[in-house]
Design goal:
Shape of chain A: globular
Oligomer: heterotetramer
Strand order of the largest sheet of chain A: 1-3-4-7
Number of strands of chain A: 9
Distance between the termini of chain B: 41 Å
Number of domains of chain A: 2
Number of strands of chain B: 7
Largest interface: A-D, 43 and 50 residues
CATH architecture of the largest domain in chain A: Orthogonal Bundle
CATH class of the largest domain in chain A: Mainly Alpha
Strand content of chain B: 5-15%
Number of helices of chain B: 11
Order of helices and strands of chain B: HHHHHEEEEEEEHHHHHH
CATH topology of the largest domain in chain B: Butyryl-CoA Dehydrogenase, subunit A, domain 3
Strand order of the largest sheet of chain B: 2-3-7-6
Radius of gyration of chain A: 20 Å
CATH superfamily of the largest domain in chain A: Acyl-CoA dehydrogenase/oxidase, N-terminal domain
Helix content of chain A: 55-70%
């Protein structure tokens, strides 16, 4: 029994954090909110060159071929930096989904493009009405009636659905399934899609950890400097306890997220259950952290000019996406209590 | 105890309901927090005023109906039940006007109140400063005597002035005796925002609307007529009305009753399991509790009693309730909760996410809940200060 | 619209508080925990002489003939003093239940005895397995299959069921319904029993208000005196906020309880709903107050020698009795949502 | 990362499970908090010791198995899963012993540890005093030098000594240099409770059991051999082990995993609606979170890392979890929750109400959660002290 990441995994995390501090400071996040696409090709290029975008893509097809456990800390960093890019969709979900469900030809066509940053691939699975980043995608993997389809962007009719998080570009899409778009059906499709849904929830959970931790860090910075009644407000017990409560929530969500990544990577029989525990706890932790952060910032954090809301709104969105805390607890409840 | 309404009260309620049914816009006005929406809301306020619904509890001479507090509560219930527009004039009507009634001169009242009621002048509050939020007594904006012109010259910066970018006037505290200690030597001024030396900068709110403003004052002249309640008496004047505002008029129960009713409706439309249903029921009960609590307070005030530090209980309760109600709504909406503005798939035009963001301000403004809980502990329960 | 008690009602409350300060200080409560019966005949006599026990008994039969609105503040005082006596059962529930359901002869037999303190009457209604104070009762009003029966104590087989609250003597009872014990059936019984259940819940809610307020008062006393780190612990913000939160809960349960009493007294169509709102809120408030009180007392409040636990355990018991907060919210939910 | 068990770890777990299945009393022992029950628990502790399960992580020389921390975790899981008796020896084993391993002399270890492991000597902690609870540095019990006899004379009062009325020895801090400031001039003493001058008074706990004691010391002689870690060094000695205890050994995950499993079982037996089921699921997830968090900590310690202020996160988490779990159980039980002891209708012999009362102590003992949250804020997050 050994619950720790490898030196390589930790080194990758450190490297990505350094990259994001440079390439994705808050102004870059903010710019994505008001840009036409919400997408920054330059940032996407950096993430691709780093190896993040293709991390899970098939090694036989130009990817790095790593697994959920290698990815989880990197997704946490994406959360910490509130990265405005579809890493969750492309890297955490789409690449493994293609690998699991598509034939060699399709993989040979798309995995290299995905890994090299040439093509953005995103997903729309049953259970959600929305496709993230459909506006910049080249290919969208879509579920209908238990079948998985791969639909080129040109064949989609997109309707923009504005999110509270300005860098999350959501769309409802209309499309026609056909023999040409069909990737898989039957058992293969349902197994691959179930795994994809778990990967989406796990990736969201990992990002929520990073978002929450960063909101706490921003707040620590603020309350250490901000003075009222002749003292830094961080010296008041109420402020201390808000932040301590938030930290407890985050730090006890963390090992559930890491364990879920481990179980997914190993194909553990309980992996879906582990993912649900992780997502439930991470969604709740981020919610508590957001509340504490805003309250401790006071009016300053309530202004649009301050960066806090960029993180907070992402946390709200990801908290509900890929299954809310309550929905994931319900799944755990089914396992514990039956049906 | 008699919780029924008198025939006169019933008649008042019905008259309000009928007028609102006939006059509330069928599609919601755009947010009153940007210039265009603000102008439309000014029209609405004028319409309310013309029908004498703008300030029901004021004397008729100023455009009111001399309504009792009970009637005021009824009007508020009807107003929010009808889904009527936000009140852009509220900071004047609910925060400044009570102070004018208590401390203003007759001339001030006659000059200011009718124009306030008709929204010819819309007022912003100017309490907070960059260095003085929860700690209001730490404010540093100052007023220097100008004997020659018979008034004062104001300088400094006020911040978080709600809708300040669109308002006509601002009320606020300024330091007139820099040598006095923190809570003294302040004066309550009425400041024309179009005066020379005033610069107003819109500040975006959490939801993206320009709901705030920074107001910069550089040697702005204010005549003696616009001092409210006496020179160096600003703190006492401001505090004397804070409790009753926080305890009664700042947030009437009607608002939360309407939100709770909409939440029940949302639960029915989207379906709720026993867990979420329990949360909806809590909201309904809490809103009822707040209504009844307010009825207790109104009875006490009508009996000649006053509202003291208990007002802090009030503020903590409704602000936390508002956050819980909106959080429950977002849970009911699931992934659609994040849709806002013009998103075609948004439920109720994204009103719940918008309301959620507004609700999150509740525990912060009008004195953070952390400060209110200190007040409850120290001044209601009698615990020692540090 | 006028939400305030009458001078008479307030005067009675003040008088009862004075009486209980004298006749029912904490040592009297404590003594009841270890006495054979849990019942103090002397205290019962005082409460009878005060007019409390017979307050709701039929005026035509020796009672005072007052209603729920007259009683509610007095029950609150009984809670404040943690009175170890079956006022809820006899006065709040049994006397009006007899009045509503029994014929003249039965009323003539028992109402005067109840009002004069000669006889203790308690109740066992469906929905609860337990009869409080069956050991000192002369008559127990019992529900079975929609019928109301009045069973003399001698005809009961009692099994003691120890409660965490040592002064609450609970019993399961075995008995044989007969034509002689039958008080009412059909519509009359079901209507009277429904009202009785509402009265029980309302009375418990009123007592919970008093218990909660007293736990807060005890705690204020403690934290004002107790010093740690060179200061009264009541000067620490965490302690202040625990108590402020508890006070908010109690003070916003209070008007719901008073309104429920008003609605019961007036026979308002929504009276059951109002009772459920009151009980739900009062149960929760007392629970929060108990937690805050114990935490702010620290180890001292955790000792058996300290009086806090006498109040706290009563609050736990009454919080669940006559329907828990969640059960009453479920009833409100049925009204709001249907079925 | 490798969350699987080695074959050796699996074998260890199985051996523990088999022994516990064969030896755990089929009916629960009476509470170990009164004299009779304590004696029965001493017998149980001896039985554990004889089978070398009393102190698995200690060296074999002292009656342990030299088990790794992973194995210790496994043993604890099996122990609580089996419903085995409370550990009356735990304050010695988990609080004093680590200190002895770090600061004791070889002679002290050889003399004390084997008797502790076999429950021949059961140890009480003597930290709190009437005036020193959360503020431990405020203690005033003192030790005066007795050069003639080569030792110290102890006087003062210790309080909330768990099961102190039945214990043989007590460890605690006493002031040896009254002139030194609050955190200095204290010495860590080992005090025989049967010595002349010691008076022990049992103090009832919330649940009525005599689980506490006041220990009065009146000029009690303690030889130099029973000073642990150096004169005037008591605070450092005590604090050096507090973090690791709070962070790891005070409450092992096995206890909460077992409670969560019993709660799930209770939910199945009595039926739960979606609201209560959600609460039960939360408990299950939280207990899992605590197990995994502890595995992280164990890995860090086995890698040579240490446990610092993060231990306060741990204490806050398990103590609040324990309260929530028991509150959920009481809700499931409804009106039967209040039944205790020998009530025929009580569920599980009233264990949930008993456990609830015990759980409520969690946020108080071992440093109140209010203090722990201050520590988290100041020492983990770096917020300023006052």
């Amino acid at each position: 029994m050994r619950f720790a990441f490898s030196p390589d995994q930790l080194a990758m995390q450190t490297a990505l954090r350094a990259l994001l501090e440079k390439e994705c400071p808050a102004p870059v996040v903010r710019a994505a909110w008001t840009s036409d696409t919400g997408h920054s090709p330059a940032l996407w290029r950096s993430l691709t060159d780093f190896g993040l975008v293709g991390l899970t893509a098939d090694a036989a097809h130009g990817g790095v071929g790593l697994d959920e456990l290698d990815l989880v800390l990197l997704l946490e960093e994406c959360g910490r930096a509130a990265v405005p890019a579809p890493v969750l969709e492309a890297t955490a979900v789409a690449a493994p989904l293609l690998r699991d469900a598509a034939n060699d030809a399709l993989n040979a066509r798309w995995q290299p493009a995905l890994a090299s940053g040439e093509a953005v691939v995103t997903v729309g699975l049953a259970g959600s009405d929305f496709v993230v980043a459909a506006n910049v995608a080249d290919l969208v993997l879509l579920e209908r009636s238990g079948e998985l389809h791969a639909v080129p962007a040109g064949a989609l009719t997109r309707t923009a659905q504005r999110s509270v998080d300005g860098s999350r570009r959501l769309f409802t899409v209309q499309w026609e399934p056909s023999a040409e778009t069909l990737v898989a059906d039957g058992e293969v499709a349902s197994r691959a899609i179930a795994a994809a849904r778990d990967r989406g929830a796990l990736a969201a959970a990992a990002q929520l950890l990073g978002l929450a931790r960063q909101m706490i860090a921003m707040t620590v910075g603020h309350v250490t400097v901000r003075k009222q009644f002749g003292a830094a407000i961080g010296s008041f017990q109420a402020v201390k306890h808000h932040l301590a409560n938030a930290l407890v929530k985050v730090e006890f969500a963390r090992p559930l997220v890491y364990r879920a990544a481990y179980s997914m990577a190993r194909g553990d029989a309980d992996r879906s259950l582990h993912v649900s525990m992780a997502k439930a706890q991470a969604s709740d932790a981020a919610e508590v952290a957001a509340r504490a952060a805003l309250q401790c910032h006071g009016a300053i954090g309530y202004s649009y000019e301050h960066d806090l809301h960029l993180w907070m709104k992402r946390a709200w969105a990801l908290g509900a996406a890929w299954g809310s805390a309550a929905q994931h607890r319900a799944r755990v409840g089914e396992a514990l209590f039956g049906g | 105890m008699d919780l029924s309404l008198t025939p006169a009260e019933e008649a008042f309620r019905l008259e309000a309901r009928r007028w609102l049914e006939a006059n509330v816009p069928s599609t919601p006005l755009p947010s009153g927090d940007d210039a265009e929406g603000f102008a439309l809301h000014r029209v609405w306020e004028k319409k309310l005023f013309d029908a004498r619904w703008a300030v029901v509890s004021w004397p008729e001479a100023y455009g009111g109906r001399g309504a009792s507090l009970v009637e005021w509560l009824l009007f508020e219930e009807e107003y929010y039940r009808a889904g009527a527009p936000q009140r852009i004039a509220q900071n004047g009507i609910f925060l400044l006007a009570p102070t004018l009634f208590e401390f203003g001169t007759q001339a001030q009242r006659d000059r200011i109140l009718p124009r306030m009621a008709a929204a010819l002048d819309v007022w912003a509050q100017g309490w907070s400063e960059p260095g003085a939020g929860s700690d209001l007594a730490g404010l540093t904006s100052r007023a220097v005597r100008d004997d020659a012109r018979g008034g004062w010259r104001l300088s400094g910066q006020k911040t978080w002035c709600t809708r300040g970018a669109h308002c006509d006037w601002m009320f606020g505290l300024f330091r007139t005796d820099p040598a006095a200690d923190r809570h003294r030597g302040m004066t309550y001024f009425l400041v024309p925002l179009r005066a020379p030396g005033v610069t107003v900068r819109a500040v975006g709110r959490l939801d993206g609307d320009d709901g705030f403003a920074d107001v910069f004052l550089d040697d702005v002249f204010v005549p003696d007529d616009d001092v409210l309640g006496g020179v160096h008496k600003g703190w006492e004047v401001a505090m004397a009305t804070t409790s009753s505002e926080r305890g009664l008029t700042l947030r009437s129960p009607g608002r939360f009753l309407a939100t709770a009713a909409r939440l029940v409706d949302l639960g029915k439309r989207f379906g709720v399991d026993e867990r979420l249903r329990d949360d909806v029921v809590r909201a309904h009960i809490d809103a009822e509790a707040y209504r009844l609590y307010t009825q207790q307070t109104v009875t006490r005030v009508m009996d000649g009693g006053s509202i003291g530090a208990e007002s802090s209980l009030n503020k903590v309760f409704w602000s936390e309730l508002d956050v819980r109600m909106h959080a429950t709504a977002l849970e009911i909406l699931g992934e659609r909760a994040e849709l806002v503005d013009d998103a075609p798939a948004a439920v109720d035009l994204g009103a719940w996410m918008k309301g959620h963001q507004f609700a999150l301000a509740g525990p912060i403004y009008a004195g953070t809940n952390e400060i209110q809980k200190n007040v409850i502990a120290e001044r209601v329960l009698g615990l020692p200060r540090r």
